[in-house]
Design a protein that fits this description.
There is one protein chain. This protein has 237 residues and is of the alpha/beta class. The chain has a domain at 70-234: 3-Layer(aba) Sandwich (Rossmann fold). 40% of the residues lie in helices and 23% in strands. It contains nine helices and seven strands; from the N terminus they run H-H-H-E-H-E-H-E-H-E-H-E-H-E-E-H. The chain has helices spanning 3-13, 22-39, 50-62, 86-92, 105-117, 129-132, 153-160, 178-191, 229-234; strands spanning 74-78, 97-102, 122-126, 142-148, 164-175, 194-203, 209-217. It has a seven-stranded mixed beta sheet with strand order 3-2-1-4-5-7-6, with helices on both faces. Helix 7 links the parallel strand 4 and strand 5 (164-175). The longest helix has 18 residues, at 22-39. The structure holds S-adenosylmethionine (SAM). S-adenosylmethionine binds at residues 79-82, 84, 101-104, 107, 128-130, 148-150, 159, 229.
Length: 237
């Protein structure tokens, strides 16, 4: 089977076929080859087989795409690592503007190289989330904040919700434990100005259970948040 066939079949099985265009497939093939090449000298991922990357990185990231909606949004990915979900989202929604934030600059090197090679609308931001979220340039500036595999939800809300503008949303891509994390995070969501507006549980093929939580920003985040990382970690809201 060709790369394109595997990509189209994987997305179709997940009901994401509207993102399975030929143009997207050819960009994902370049991204896959570049990821494996970069990963041979700088660790970005433990998953390198073609079907595994398509399912666990590309399709998993694209599950956030329907939350963008019709409008072109200003999107921030907190803790994007090697570019997930930012890179796949930028391939399927090149009309939006993406900021890829991570504290590890060498991972962002790959994201910037891919943005350049594939002409994707991504700006990289090497920084700690809890530090830049306190600055007027980034605080409450984004229509949509996304994040995958960065922290448990109470901590993650403190790192992400301060970036969301009034009426904007934070979409957390979670594993099978997402509902348990949601129960733990109810206090944090309210305290930080958020309100849960949707939750979706599904199975990402053989990768297993996934939960997507969509949180709207209904009030400004109090100025005291986010706290220093040691405090967020020691005493999650
Ligand atoms: N989101 C990517 C993915 O799903 O493949 C990367 C996940 S990786 C397990 C977690 C990433 O979050 C790391 O690259 C780490 O540097 C970043 N990270 C963790 N805490 C952070 C913080 N406070 N500010 C910025 N980046 C952070």
């Amino acid at each position: 089977m060709t790369f394109s066939d595997t990509y189209v079949n994987t997305l179709t099985a997940l009901g994401l076929d509207s993102y399975a265009t030929d143009e997207a497939a050819s960009k994902f093939e370049v991204l896959y080859q570049s990821l494996v090449a970069f990963n041979s000298h700088t660790n970005l991922t433990a998953i390198t087989d073609e079907a595994g990357v398509i399912l666990r990185h590309f399709a998993d990231s694209i599950t956030a795409a329907p939350y963008i909606g019709e409008r072109s949004l200003n999107v921030l990915d907190v803790g994007c690592g090697g570019g997930f979900p930012t890179l796949p989202l930028a391939i399927v929604r090149p009309d939006c503007r993406f900021t890829a934030l991570d504290s590890t600059a060498k991972k962002l090197t790959f994201v910037a190289q891919m943005a350049d090679l594939l002409s994707l609308p991504i700006t990289t931001l090497p920084a700690r989330a809890e530090e830049v979220a306190l600055t007027p340039e980034y605080r409450e500036r984004y229509d949509l904040v996304v994040s995958r595999a960065v922290a448990r939800l109470p901590m993650l809300c403190e790192l992400c919700l301060p970036f969301v503008k009034a009426g904007g949303r934070f979409v957390a891509l979670k594993g099978a434990d997402g509902e348990v994390e949601l129960a733990e995070a109810e206090h944090a969501i309210t305290k930080l100005g958020g309100k849960l507006v949707s939750q979706k549980s599904f199975t990402l093929g053989e990768a297993g259970g996934r939960v997507i939580l969509e949180i709207e920003k209904v009030r400004p985040t109090p100025a005291t948040y986010p706290r220093a990382f040691a405090k967020i970690k020691k005493a999650p809201l």
